[in-house]
């Protein structure tokens, strides 16, 4: 059951057809079931929609009485539409809000990974996910590996939604790795708790998944240090791999080395799983660099790649030992090829990968932040 805490839905009435066994209504204060006629005279806020399990019927709509009376026809019609959507999308949570007298409606689709193609015999499947929202994210503060902020209430709900989507993937991951930072561990743990119809994945630490160390600029407003961040990213984009965002920060050479280790370790771990599928919870800038490497994309283009909190990236890696590894050298597209100033002796190797989903966020509904 998913709480829709900050997404009020106003309702006045539901058609009698919905009372015919497909949905019941439960008062969150008394935890008691209410029949439909008793709800018709009152206005209430829809808090949760719970789809029945195979052994449970009917579905449940949880509500909280506002003790308000009188209403308008538009809100009543709106509520009927919402209830209909709850029936039409049985594997989704319908979330909505009324803002400035305008209707906003989003459907969180937890089946977004259920239509993935079968994993080829020579491949493994990795889900690269971003952690749930933290207060640093909400306030737009620089948050790197020196900042160990927990996820906030929105982040916890995002992590639950992430877990619901992963649990319905084909196949679901057997292991969820996380970085040493608490925001990824909390996200991984909450996600694993959503695996209700299958064996929950084990949770493991992988230190190399940590966010980039931005140095002393961490904790400052992104707007205030944007020029420094752009300068560092521009330098990295043309191969100045020993540049650091701050003197006490991490160089791009060190970042690339960590990402190489991550890909090699995760693909090896996936090979040892029966499903050949695992997940990893990491961080936004780290994921942009990793995905740029996989897609052979210039780093300056990857800098604008959307990576919402709790989004999912799906990558198929070819682990056939007969296939040569992908080489990243000074002339790679990552550094702009002819523009590259990377050291001539720089080189690293990773398995060839194919991105099947990039920045998937449909499972988050209105909480895609």
What features would you highlight for this structure?
globular; disordered N terminus; single chain; 28% helix; 9 helices; 6-stranded mixed β-sheet; alpha/beta; 5-stranded mixed β-sheet; 369 residues
Q: How is the topology of this model organized?
A:
Layout: E1 10-11, E2 23-27, E3 33-34, H1 36-39, E4 43-50, E5 59-68, H2 73-88, E6 92-99, E7 102-109, E8 123-130, H3 135-139, H4 153-167, E9 175-178, H5 182-192, E10 202-205, H6 222-237, H7 252-271, E11 277-282, H8 284-295, H9 299-302, E12 312-318, E13 326-329, E14 347-350, E15 353-360
Parallel strand pairs: 2-5, 8-11, 9-10, 9-11
Antiparallel strand pairs: 1-4, 2-3, 4-5, 6-7, 8-12, 12-15, 13-14
Helix pairs in contact: 4-5
Give an account of the 3D structure.
It is built from 9 helices and 15 strands. With 369 residues, the protein is α/β, with parallel strands linked by helices. A 6-stranded mixed sheet has the order 10-9-11-8-12-15, with helices on both faces. A 5-stranded mixed sheet has the order 1-4-5-2-3. A two-stranded antiparallel ribbon has the order 6-7. A hairpin with a 5-residue loop joins strand 2 (23-27) and strand 3. The chain is globular. The chain starts with 9 loop residues before the first strand and ends in a 9-residue tail after the last strand.
